[in-house]
Predict the 3D structure of the following.
Amino acid sequence: MVCIRQATVEDLLAMQACNLLCLPENYQMKYYLYHILSWPQLLFVAEDYGSKIVGYVLAKMEEDASEPCHGHITSLAVLRTHRKLGLATKLMTAAQNAMDSVFGAEYVSLHVRRSNRAAINLYTSTLGYKIHDVEAKYYADGEDAYDMRKQLKVRTAHHHGHGHHHHPGGACCSGDAAKPVEADAGTGASASASASANAGERRAGGVQSR
Amino acid sequence: MGSSLPPKEANLFKVIVKSYETKQYKKGLKAADAVLKKFPEHGETLSMKGLTLNCMDRKSEAYELVRRGLKNDLKSHVCWHVYGLLYRSDREYREAIKCYRNALKIDPDNIEILRDLSLLQAQMRDHTGFIETRQQLLTLKPNHRMNWIGFAVSHHLSSNVSKAIDILEAYEGTLEDDYPPDNERYEHGEMLLYKISLLEECGLLKKALEEMHKKEAKIVDKLAYREQMASILVKLGCLEEGEKIYRSLLFMNSDNYRYFIGLQKCLGLYSEKGQYTSDEIERLDAFYKSLKEQYSWSSAVKRIPLDFLEGDNFREAADCYVRPLLTKGVPSLFSDLSPLYDHPGKACILEELFLQLEDSIRMTGSFPGRTRKEPPSTLVWTLLLVSQHFDRRGQHAIALAKIDEAIEHTPTVIDLYSVKGRILKHAGDLAAAASLADEARSMDLADRYLNSECVMRMLQADQVGFAEKTALLFTKDGDQHNNLHDMQCMWYELASGESYFRQGDLGRALKKFLAVEKHYADMTEDQFDFHSYCLRKMTLRAYVSMLKFQDKLHSHEYFHKAAAGVIRCYMKLHDFPIRATTEEGDEMSRLPPSQRKKLRQKQKKAEARAKKEADEKTEEETSSSTSKPGKRQHTRSVDVDPHGEKLLQVEDPLLEATKYLKLLQNNSASSLETHILSFELNMRKQKILLAFQAVKQLLKLDENNPDCHRCLIRFFHKVSSFPAPVTDSAILIWNVLEAELPNISQLHGKSLNVINQSFLEKHKDSLMHRAAAAEMLLVLEPEKKLEAIKLIEDSPNKLAPVNGALGPVREWKLEDCIAVHKLLKTVFINENAASRWKARCAEYFPYSTYFGGCRSSAVAFSVNHNVQNAPENGVLAYQETKSEESHSLNGKLQAFKDLTI
């Protein structure tokens, strides 16, 4: 009934509209652009029979070299009118698969409101996430977040031979983590004048990005 | 840079630059002041201080310093570069480019300035300049990957695809065979996919395929690899191989419709318009049946056949499709089926099927032909489906009866209330729709979707104040302020702008519409940082599609609506200048123009002062909390015009409107509305030839449209009323029109009356066409007013040609009837005819509050006269919020008692 496919740039306005209808944490367009221009493989949409976007997942790779290579679900939403179709599960599975196959992510993390029982239930019993930590007062309104994680592959240090094709990525923590913000900071007076460029990375809706 | 300074100051200068780059502006400022203490006229330091202040929101000082710095050191590339950066930060790209070019005259090989210039050229789509600059960068630093890629992209953007491919291949030639190292596999794979997409784009399909086979191991994104491969194979006509790939893609994701379409193409069973011969339908049916065995869990496999099957086969497939979803209780079932309603035959089959299912569940507790008992919820979901079906058919009374039954059966299902609200909206009772949506909202306060839907319904019912309060439950950002604007919540701004416009509050309406326009300007600006970012990240396919997306950003629906809203506001302001002005405007309108201008200048100065003070205040506040750098953007300068009153004080509203009309003409040329607005605006501006252009466009788009007919008649009627031309320009206009006339086929030797008459003859069964013809009769022959009114009143409301199982359906639409009523009232100015029309329509639309239908809330709550009229209602609600304390509930407001949560 509903098509699950990779998102394109043309979908971003509809994804933003869907987010604003459904969720209290919202982002400016630049943040969506930042995602699709950094990890175009990690954004998926659910599109109904009338070509309307009724759900999406917005995901990214964490590029902190001090942590093992892993992905992060920035935002997931499905319109209330399109519940009970398993769309959230399909969107999440698609994003997780891409994190694994393209970027070689070891695990995927996400934040969820402590009170959001339905979502927590989906993450734990359907998708296999576990609570890793609690982040106190993570949300703008003061609510705590669960830091949940799902292991995508078993950490085996050296896979000789047959395991090789499971790790095509490895591009994840390449150290080329420059955000568009810092992207052009050269030397001399000629540094880019990107004083306000931070907007893309900052999640103005209240949740903290890292 | 800073070379003319002694060592100590030269070091300080480095600190300024470093601090600027690391955004430690206070530190930079301190260093700058230390240099200036000794060398108060040092140009580069003055410039850098200015640039630093610019980042601290001290704009005017910044410009002053940067200009002074430049004046003191015209030969410094730093000063020119800084001046360019300053302009750049204010989005004055053309000026910035000039400055960069001056800087490059002094220091032609400065990599940073060249890079900054190239970014602006990409942003401005100066493709020729972009190629030039990228070539220079590559020549200067050929060992940088980015410079190769940038040069290739620059050629791609100017449509020289084969040159772009050559550059990428030359770049590959510089790489070792074992490239890439492990940490660059993703980037290299992206580059290869980009190159392959270029090969496909310029039709080198065989070469693209070869390249894919050769580089398969180096491409990390296997999904993109397969999708691209399949697309190339289909284009090459290698359908068997294509089929194999599509089947493998389907195996990975059987919910992607595009793979099914791809498979159909490979089997020679695809038609863009969905038209198939009976033989093809049979083969398609067999194909999907075989897929169903393989992908039993895929809903697409079951849904797609409903599109091509017909008659009994369709009925059977629909039956099989619908049953399990009713048992499961899937709320989107109706919306999933609704595209099928475009085939009237299918709609009738569905009606029969749904009613039969409802009957069977009600009587036996099972689906027809089954013995297994359904759970009680199946009846609720079936009633919901039936209700939505009749809503779609325009039979609102039946729809409401069914949904009420569902609610009575299980009052806890929230979706039922939402749907009932939607039906009431369609039926014309906006206030009741809003209160239903509010009821749904109150059943799950943590669900923002229910909140959003409620806000939308409130805005549709012109309850702007309540809408804002309700939205605030999710959008509170600090005290008072809500973050809807910061988060670019455009549906909200549009809907409230439209509501304000309906209520005649042009200032607030303009403010909301202009806010949407601003979001689009910001999004255009958003690309800037990605021009260099993507070259490094190598996400080139996404980057190029982003540029294409940006190029048509302003053709997006929300922008179109906002621009149209702005133009309407300005035209109304032009038509009724006094009504729109505020108290001080009244005072102003009494003054002679010369004094008015003085007063206005005085006001502007006072405002600027107030704003500066306010800004300085916020600046102090922010600088005192530097520990949270991310917060900086949150503090916004104080809104000196919260109600949009200043927006109304434009010298020439039509000139303002013209700006936005140009955007529409450039980006929505295929929309009727664009040219109707152009006609209206240019008629007001007496721009005869431009108005004529609009008429020509309209006739080209749809000569049978009632509004196009109106424009045609009004235009030539107006022209015929002009005196014979005397001035040169008037004669010129006349000559152009003369020359163009033979191209208007409608006119050929006929009088306007005859044209109007034949338009009426041609469309005599359509209400809106009759109304247009009647209105034009009034324009052409005002003395025939009563005849014109009779034309409207004689319109027949026929039965729609569908065989509704539960009573007849009439053709007229509510919004059309409301438009006709307004026409009778405001254009014909005939109260009797208007009230006759109202009474007649109240019969057709018993739920309509506008017509005071017997089942509408306007009548149900008629104890309170405030509710009689929807727009008044809205004004009332809005006044309500204006005076926060006086929360006197009046009748209809009972529905909002839950608001204080």
